[in-house]
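Researcher: Next sequence.
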Amino acid sequence: MASPIVVMGVSGSGKSTVGAALAQRLRVPFADADDFHPPANLAKMTSGEALDDDDRYPWLEAIGEWLAGHPDGGVMSCSALKRKYRDQLRRHCADVEFLHLSGTPEVIGKRQASRPGHFMPASLLASQFDTLEPLASDERGISIDVDQNIDAIIESYIAATDSPTVNEQDR
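Model: Next structure:
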């Protein structure tokens, strides 16, 4: 049995891309936390305003419920920037693992600039880095540098966590 995985990091780190590829590799469902935002959150971010904890609470509850509904494995892309947000998710799913996609503001900024039209404007990137609390030693998960290709990130995660993979013949 696999644990649900949250691919976390600041906006532009590649959470959705890596999360979808990881889910495909592990043959488990994938969901993007962006799809769980209520319209008011999207409007606030689109206007350049950062979300506060009150905005995030119901959003994180919905994500936690999705994780709890996938006890045999699933991958969710979610910023999960603060420890208290990850704790909120763990209240729903105690065995959730985290894959923190880390990178410098310069690397992430370049990535973010290459995706025009996303509801999260580049102007909020600094606030995301200010909010980010990296995984603590008592949290299940690892941090992997995003300045490499997707396959390398997934291979690093699988090697570090001994996550189940598909048989070689199934690739």
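Model: DSSP finds seven helices and five strands in the chain. Residues 53-68 form the longest helix (16 residues).
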